[in-house]
């Protein structure tokens, strides 16, 4: 059996309980060595064979999985964050389907969640933004024209940009071409939840400058939008004048009881 496991955003204790158990039971672990915290490998049992996929091709990864399956062993394919985002898992699953090898998928905490926690931020604020665009800048991997950063920027919603730290000048230009003001709030979160985490607040026009000043060249998320620095409306969910399935609205809020 092959178990795809999301390792979480970085901190070793942010893997899920299920993911940790699967790591502890695995006979073979194939991990994304360029991104996954190596501290997670301390969960491996004695005798577990461990492979770093950063040095492997898809074909080599599948060969390791097939070899383990032929031996009746369990394999964990450990991906950073949650593998459904830029994890290249579909191509692995298609190959396993072709070979008739069973697999399952255990989700993980994405780095975009870790970045929000690092910023003490909420992506979806009433009257500011109710949508989050997760995207990337076109590089060696192309992006469909209709999904360009410029086109998404036209919506003025929250944006979380992956895999683009090396293209910050271009990112800023595209964001401003799409409608963001040069002084619109932005942030860089380097290695969210890792011990070496860095949080840098800046503006859309100063993304590249902020990265240079803080020696950030990779492994960072770019966050853009009013959620970082805007007035917002209070949530209706906890408004005393708002009726819900569980609570009847009152005509006015009550004063705190005197001690």
What descriptors fit this protein?
259 residues, Cobalt-precorrin-4 Transmethylase, domain 1, Methyltransferase, Cobalt-precorrin-4 Transmethylase, Domain 2, 2 domains, five-stranded mixed β-sheet, 10 strands
Explain how this protein is built.
The protein is of the alpha/beta class and 259 residues long. It has 2 domains: 2-106, 3-Layer(aba) Sandwich (Cobalt-precorrin-4 Transmethylase, domain 1); 111-228, Methyltransferase, Cobalt-precorrin-4 Transmethylase, Domain 2 (2-Layer Sandwich). Helix content is 25%, strand content 19%. It has 7 helices and 10 strands. Helix 2 (58-70) packs across helix 3 (90-99).
Low-confidence stretches: 254-259
Q: Tell me about the biggest sheet?
A: 5 strands, parallel
CATH superfamily of the largest domain: Tetrapyrrole methylase, C-terminal domain
Outline, from the CA principal axes?
A: globular
N- to C-terminal distance? 60 Å
Name of the top-level CATH class of the largest domain: Alpha Beta
Instruction: Evaluate the radius of gyration.
Output: 22 Å
In short:
The protein is of the alpha/beta class and 259 residues long. The protein is built from seven helices and ten strands. α2 packs across α3.
Give the helices and strands, then pairings.
Layout: E1 2-6, H1 17-25, E2 28-31, E3 49-52, H2 58-70, E4 75-79, H3 90-99, E5 103-106, H4 111-119, E6 132-136, H5 149-153, E7 158-162, H6 168-178, E8 185-190, E9 198-203, H7 207-213, E10 220-224
Parallel strand pairs: 1-4, 1-5, 2-3, 2-4, 6-7
Antiparallel strand pairs: 7-10, 8-9, 8-10
């Amino acid at each position: 059996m092959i178990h795809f496991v999301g390792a979480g955003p970085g901190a070793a204790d942010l893997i899920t309980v299920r993911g940790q158990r699967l790591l502890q039971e695995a006979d073979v672990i194939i991990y994304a060595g360029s991104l996954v915290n190596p501290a997670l490998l301390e969960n491996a049992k004695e005798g577990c064979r461990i492979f770093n996929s950063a040095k492997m091709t898809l074909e080599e990864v599948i060969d390791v999985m097939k070899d383990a399956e032929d031996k009746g062993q369990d394999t964990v394919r450990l991906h950073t964050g949650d593998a459904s985002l830029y994890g290249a898992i579909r191509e692995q699953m298609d190959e396993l389907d072709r070979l008739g090898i069973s697999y399952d998928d255990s989700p993980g905490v994405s780095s975009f969640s870790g970045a929000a926690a690092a910023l003490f931020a909420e992506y979806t604020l009433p009257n500011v933004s109710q949508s989050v665009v997760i995207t990337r800048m076109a590089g060696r991997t192309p992006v469909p024209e209709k999904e360009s950063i410029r086109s998404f920027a036209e919506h003025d919603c929250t944006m979380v940009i992956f895999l683009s730290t090396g293209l910050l000048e271009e990112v800023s230009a595209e964001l401003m071409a799409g409608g963001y003001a040069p002084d619109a709030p932005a942030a860089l979160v380097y290695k969210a939840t890792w011990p070496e985490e860095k949080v840098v607040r800046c503006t859309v026009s100063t993304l590249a400058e902020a990265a240079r000043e803080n020696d950030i060249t990779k492994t960072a998320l770019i966050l853009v939008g009013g959620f970082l620095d805007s007035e917002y409306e209070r949530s209706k969910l906890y408004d005393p004048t708002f009726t819900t399935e569980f609570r009847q609205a009152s005509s006015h809020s009550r004063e705190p009881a005197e001690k």
